[in-house]
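Second attempt. The first submission of Amino acid ABC transporter substrate-binding protein (PAAT family) had a stray character pasted in from the spreadsheet, which I only caught after the job came back as garbage. Lesson logged: always re-copy from the clean sequence file. Corrected sequence (278 aa) follows.
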Amino acid sequence: MNRRDALTTVALAGAAIAAAGTPAKADAPASTLDRIKRNGVLRVAVIVGQEPYFHKDLASNEWSGACIEMAKDIASKLGAKVETLESTWGNQILDLQADKVDLAFAVNPTPERALVIDFSTPILVHSFTVITKKGFAKPQTWAELNKPEVKIAVDIGSTHETIARRYCPKANILGFKNRDEAILAVATGRADCNVSLAVLSVSTLKKNPNLGDLAIPRPLLTLPTNMGIRAENDRRYKDFLSAWADYNRSMGQTREWMLKGFEAVGLTADDLPPEVQF
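This time the job returned cleanly.
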């Protein structure tokens, strides 16, 4: 073996040893968009009794509502079908983080949530309202509720709780596992009122007219509602959902889906206060 061949052999051996000693680079996780297209499934968080967003037929277990229509439209654009996972307003963020769902609807983009998930552009803008029990004076301002003797029922982890604690810190705020339990607390007199988004409040009172009254305290508090997704480096899924949200909102399609969702509880556009925006 001549000197040149010897040097080549040594170089090749060294490269082999280096390769053997270097751990293989882990494959980068598949993006949400790629996985949806590959599996043909869009996993969506759904919440019982939250018309006009979600409605579950207890006889057939079939889901309907504005967000179900939206999910089906999104899935059709991706060549996928919708798969649902029952959740709550507070837990759907955790479900996103745990990779149980690919999409959560009607998520308010708070700074705290922005640290752990990402958002599309808004689907629509909401106002916060109060459902008061029978006999409880309808508040004209949030300050009227900010008293130690006032009991406010909220669902833990929701933006409803955030608003109650922000504007009524002196009140006795009662946290419940989900919104249905918070509403039940008002119905049974354990709480004086419940803080909810306007679209949910009007549906609740339509289904339970004897529950109490709707109040829209001042200052009028509004917050956009968006779609929540997992945070990832690949921006295609987020950009697609944002373009989808902007397009359907500007074309009036989002309003049509919302009005169709309100039909489940017998509400029409004429029944909705002006604070309920689409």
